[in-house]
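Hi R.,

Here's the chain you asked about this morning:
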Amino acid sequence: MTRVIVNKPQPLEARFALERDRVQAAFGSRLREFRVAKQLTLEMLADRADLHANYVGAVERGERNLSLYNVWRIAHGLGIAPADLMQALPERKIQA
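And the predicted structure, written out as tokens:
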């Protein structure tokens, strides 16, 4: 068993990376649905959430693994509860 060094990011195993990508894509798709339904541009949402538009766009494309704090900021920028963004996340298929 290898020793994990605290505060040093460890690379994900391939199976976990695929799972992460699937979750990020589902979250981004749900975010885009809410943003479009509220007739907001990326720039408008980013301004409301106090984030950069490029960051919000990357989240929508499933390219970013955002923090809980940024989920909270984006949800409030949309005027919804953070839980609303999380409802579309897929069930976990991989057992650790």
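The chain is about 60% helix and 0% strand.

Let me know if you need anything else.
M.
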